[in-house]
Amino acid sequence: HRRVRRQIRNVCCIGAGYVGGPTAAMIALHNPHIRVTVVDRDEKRIRAWNSRHLPIHEPGLSDVVRAARDGLRPGVDGTGHFDASIEETTTRAPNLFFSTACAETIAEADVVMISVNTPTKRQGQGAGRATDMTAFEGATRDVATHSRRGCIIVEKSTVPCKTGQLIKNITQQHRPELDFPILSNPEFLSEGTAIKDLMRPDRVIIGCESTPSGIAAAEALADLYASWVPQERIVTNNIWSAELCKLTANAMLAQRISSINSISAICERTGADVGEIAKSIGLDRRIGPQFLKAGLGFGGSCFRKDIASLTYLAESLGLPEVAAYWEQVLTMNNYQRDRFALNVIAKLNNSLRGKKITILGYAFKKDTGDARESPALDVIRMLLEEGPKSIAIFDPLCSEADIRYELSALPAADAQDVVKVCADPYEACEDSSAVLVLTDWDMFKMQPRSAPVKAQPVDSPVIASFSPSTPADLLHLPQRSKEKPPTIV
Ligand code: NAD
After folding, report:
1. ipTM of the complex
2. Catalytic residue chosen out of the listed positions 208, 245, 302, 422
3. What is the active site of this protein (predicted)?
4. 188 appears as a binding residue in the annotation
5. What is the pTM of this model?
6. Whose CA is nearest to atom 20 of ligand 1?
7. Is 50 strand, coil or helix?
8. Which one in 255, 258, 440, 452 has a CA-CA gap of 20 to 30 Å to 481?
9. 198 φ/ψ sector (left φ>0, alpha ψ -120 to 50, else beta)
10. In which band, very low, low, confident or very high, does the pLDDT at 260 lie, cut at 50, 70 and 90?
11. Is 302 one of the catalytic residues?
12. How far is the centre of ligand 1, averaged over its atoms, from the C-alpha of 158 (Å)?
C-alpha cells in the first residue's frame, strides 16, 4: 500500500507546564503554518502564559514564546537556528495560543499531545512508587470524548510502559467506533536548559504501532520535528520501547549521580578527592564526564519518581531483583542528604538550639525556579529536628509561596514559623552559625569585581556547600558596594 502522508494543521497540547509550554512553543516557532494551542485547567497558569510574565523561568523561553505567540519574527542565524541575540525584524502571523477551552481545542486538533503531570501515587496500592495516572487518565478521557476521527494521540508525559494500551482501552470505551493512532513521544528536556535541549535535541523518539495508521501517524509527527531537528536524530521505535526508554534514560542518569555520591562517602573517610576522581574517570571515553558531580543528590520532579515507577513496574512484572537494583539508587540519594545534614549538625557541636542556619539556594538546580522535590527540603527536615532558632532561605528564583508550599509537607508543626524566606542573600547570612549552599547558582560562585570578602579567622566556621567546591567559593558572593560584607560565622 502506498501511504498517503498526513497533513497536520492543528496541534493541541494538554498541560501548560514545564514540558507542555516550552515544547509547544518550539513546535509553533518552527512550523509557522501550524496552529498550536496549549490548554490547561489552571486558569492562573494560562493567564500567565498569555502575559509578559510567563509562569516558568527558562533561559530563552520568553523569546521563543514572544516570537510564536505574538508574531515577532525571531532572529535566525546562518544555519537557520533561532538566535535570541539577532534582532527580530518583520512580523509573522501568531500561531501559538494558550487557553482553558480544553474541549473545543481538542475537537479541532489533528494531533493531541498529552503533557500533564504524572507524579508518584500518594495513597493506595503502590503508594510512594507507582505513577499516579489520575491527570493522565482525565486528559485521555477528554481526548476520547471530544477529538475528531483520526486524531493522533501522543503520550508526551513520562508514563509507565504499556500506557498505550491504557489509552486504547479508554478511547474504545468512549468511542468504540473509532480507532485513534497512538504514539509515544517522551520528552528529554532538562529544566534550566529546556530551550537549548528542545532546539538541539540529542534525539527525538517516536514510538508507534506497526500498523499502516500507526506508521503514518509517526511520520506525520516526525514531519513536525523535521522542520528543525536533523532527520538522523528522529528515531522511530515500537511504542513500548519508546515508553520504557524515557524511564531508562532517567534511571541511568540518576544512577551515575548515586554512583559518584557513593564514592564521595569513601573519599571523606580516606582523604581522596571526589572531584579529582570524577575528572579522572570522566576522561575515559567509555565513561564520559557528564553527571559525575558529587553533591546532595538529585532532586526535581522527575528522577525520583521515574526510578520509583521503574521499580514498581519491575516488581509488578515479577522481577524483584531488578526492582531492588534500582531501589538502591534512591537509597544512596537519601543517604547522601542525611550524611550532609548530619555533618552540618556535627560541625555545630551537635546542637542547633539558639542558632540561625542559612540556606543559599532552594531550587533543585540552577537556572530554574522549580521548588518541587528539592534536596533542600530533606536537609531542612533534618535540621528542624534539632530545634534551630531559625532557618533563613535565599533563592534567586524560587518564589516564597512555592517554597512555603513545599515546607507545608514537613511534619514539624512550627516549620513555617522557624523558616524565613529572604529576598536578599546578605540578610539571609547575617548572624548565621552556618551557611549551606544547596543550589549551584552561578551567583554563589561568581568572582567578584572587587577583592573577595576575606574569611575571618573564627572558632568554627561552618560553610557547607552542596558540591565539593571550596568554602572560598562562598566568600565570593557578589559584594554590595560600600556596605559591610556578610557575616559568615
Ligand atoms: P507540570 O505539573 O508543570 O504541568 C502539568 C500541567 O498539566 C499542569 O499545569 C496541570 O494543571 C495540567 N493538567 C493536568 N491535568 C489536566 C487536564 N486533564 N486538562 C488540562 N490540563 C491538565 O508538569 P511538567 O513538569 O510539565 O511534566 C509533565 C510531564 O512531563 C510529566 O509526566 C513529567 O514526568 C514529564 N517530564 C517532565 C520534565 C521536567 O523537567 N519537568 C522533563 C521531561 C518529562
Report:
1. 0.99
2. 302
3. 302
4. yes
5. 0.88
6. 40
7. coil
8. 440
9. alpha
10. very high
11. yes
12. 9
